[in-house]
Write a structure and sequence with these properties.
The protein has helices at 9-12, 16-26, 43-48, 52-61, 77-80, 82-96, 116-120, 125-143, 150-160, 175-190, 204-214; strands at residues 2-7, 32-37, 66-71, 100-106, 146-148. It is an alpha/beta fold. It has a 5-stranded parallel β-sheet with strand order 2-1-3-4-5, sandwiched between helices. The chain is globular. Helix 2 (16-26) crosses helix 10 (175-190). The longest helix is centred in the middle third of the chain and has 19 residues, at 125-143.
């Protein structure tokens, strides 16, 4: 199974696609991941900037066939420019649709309550996520794309445990946050929680918390 990830630092922090790939392989699934990412990049830029990253998307799909393409957009775009979010999803899909069987939308999370964007916009982690969720659900329903609910799982773990999911910048994922992302994508694609999670190198307590969240 080949999976193409297109996104930015929320995807490439801690090499999350490879965390996902290793989980899958360790659970007897034949998986190969390819990632096209650039920090701070929006999906609309992959489609319209016509730069090396636009070329990277076209190069990734040329002559290749993917079972899944997982799209992740800029963390605040659903709040600041919801129309550009929808346009970006549609235009990147147009770029890859001849080479992918299914598209999954990588739902991102609300920033930590101490992050500047939260404080300056009178938001909370939960209220920011609710805006993100609504936007991903809307375009997912319109285009028939499944949504991988990473943001929902982030919020539940953030509110109900002491697991630090955020990098010290209060925005990006910590290693544990990237593990939760990978586990969510795994569950979204395979419909089950992985039995073998040794590659994550997390305590059983943390694995159990993640499982109880992801596999609800």
């Amino acid at each position: 199974m080949k999976t193409l990830f297109i996104g930015n630092s929320y995807t490439f922090y801690n090499d999350m696609p490879k965390i996902f790939e290793k989980l899958a392989i360790d659970n007897d699934k034949d998986v190969q991941t390819i990632a096209v990412t650039k920090g701070g990049h929006k999906l609309i830029e992959y489609a319209e900037a016509n730069d090396e990253y636009t070329k990277n998307v076209y190069d990734a799909v040329e002559g290749n066939r993917y079972d899944y393409c997982i799209l992740q957009d800029y963390s605040t775009i659903t709040i600041t420019s919801p129309d550009l979010f929808e346009k970006g999803v549609k235009e990147v899909y147009d770029m890859v649709k001849g080479s992918v069987d299914k598209v999954i939308l990588y739902q991102t999370w609300g920033s930590h309550s101490n992050h500047k964007f939260i404080l300056e916009n009178n938001l909370t982690t939960k209220s920011m996520f609710e805006i993100i969720k609504k936007a991903y659900d809307k375009i997912g329903k319109e285009l028939g794309f499944k949504v991988s609910p990473v943001g929902k799982n982030f919020l539940e773990v953030f509110e109900n445990s002491d697991i630090e999911l955020y990098h010290e910048d209060c925005k990006h994922p910590s290693y544990k946050g990237s593990c939760l992302s990978a586990l969510t994508h795994y569950y979204t694609i395979f419909g089950e929680f992985p039995k073998n999670t040794a590659s994550l190198n997390l305590t059983q307590e943390k694995i159990d918390i993640f499982k109880n969240t992801v596999a609800k």
